[in-house]
Amino acid sequence: xxxxxxxxxxxxxxxxxxxxxxxxxxxxxxxxxxxxxxxxxxxxxxxxxxxxxxxxxxxxxxxxxxxxxxxxxxxxxxxxxxxxxxxxxxxxxxxxxxxxxxxxxxxxxxxxxxxxxxxxxxxxxxxxxxxxxxxxxxxxxxxxxxxxxxxxxxxxxxxxxxxxxxxxxxxxxxxxxxxxxxxxxxxxxxxxxxxxxxxxxxxxxxxxxxxxxxxxxxxxxxxxxxxxxxxxxxxxxxxxxxxxxxxxxxxxxxxxxxxxxxxxxxxxxxxxxxxxxxxxxxxxxxxxxxxxxxxxxxxxxxxxxxxxxxxxxxxxxxxxxxxxxxxxxxxxxxxxxxxxxxxxxxxxxxxxxxxxxxxxxxxxxxxxxxxxxxxxxxxxxxxxxxxxxxxxxxxxxxxxxxxxxxxxxxxxxxxxxxxxxxxxxxxxxxxxxxxxxxxxxxxxxxxxxxxxxxxxxxxxxxxxxxxxxxxxxxxxxxxxxxxxxxxxxxxxxxxxxxxxxxxxxxxxxxxxxxxxxxxxxxxx
Length: 524
Description:
This protein has 18 helices and 21 strands.
């Protein structure tokens, strides 16, 4: 029988990546395309935590990478395409489900574009949602850690409705990137993915899907009628959305028999690409982090995480999500801060920091707020214990330690909530490229950390779901077993640093609490 080929598309913060795999998981081709408008810093204002992306960036870059990976390949052997995206990254759409920014009227309006996951313009709206949830007879945030974030669906939706009357009048729904892009490829109606709906939009079967109309209106009357424009049913990513549309089939020289799998978030599919097992913590480490686990059952809700959703990672398993709002972004910020046009690289900073003795500088990793545990986008970063002898490598080392402390805090929350961690696996750009960062994480977390072999693990996970949706494999566990790429290295904690880092971690927690109290005392 002719071997089938699968495509995985991974829409990251800065670019889209595509992999072409055979059904044994061997990588036949990889392509990456940066978003043009995003790279030109259009429609963004970092000082205001405003980050928007134009849908044309997604379409143009996707077309480019698909064309590249299919070049000189047997296109007739392609069975399916799977897609993951960052999230929550939603957009206002018209009555046909088309992003408003694709119309002439809204082509240059950031409020009509996709609101990137790290956009924090909706902090006030998140506060209102949390306030309403605590007053409600049912706390609709209970399966989302009990704390709604400015990074998520309803906060962003309400913010757009409040700040832009023209968009509000033209808007007939708000759609996640991962749900829209698969509908675009299949030319089908949007089907809500379980992953995005459960983790970011407060969807849960126990209250009939999305929160009821009366709860949403209690947050703000502008949400009246908006629930009815959305969905009640959700789908796991192994369920086909449809077949490749005639338009896209002609554009890519593919058959309309190609199956489009359901969409999900990058980190959840990355966990699948790393062949996640129960009680294994998958750390997706890039500009931010996303920490993924699965559990066969839970007796209680875990406080302060980004959700526990049946089927968001693996069908039939509860998917658990946590993460940090900034990780690699912090290193890039510091490099840019000290460079002033000169040649300063993160690699050089890492090399110099690695040689330094331990010091007392402590940083807080909240430069883009805190995602988990206990979401709080009002928080800001801080650096303590500086003096006239503090050097750039010393500060950089403290920043690396800070993100590792944040990672430990997340792991501790899982363990304290009755979810044991038997294995830690890292994927993503930072995990693949920075030995210093990964060794520091292993030392501070006190756990071995292995690194997945593939540098495109999220796209690999998307391709695995494509294999199931298209019938190449019967279920995702079989696809993970047959298409797994393995691991390339493992970092072990240095026992000699255990006591030092344990004491420094306790100081980090104390300073974090003091700083949070100070910041929140000024929030009205």
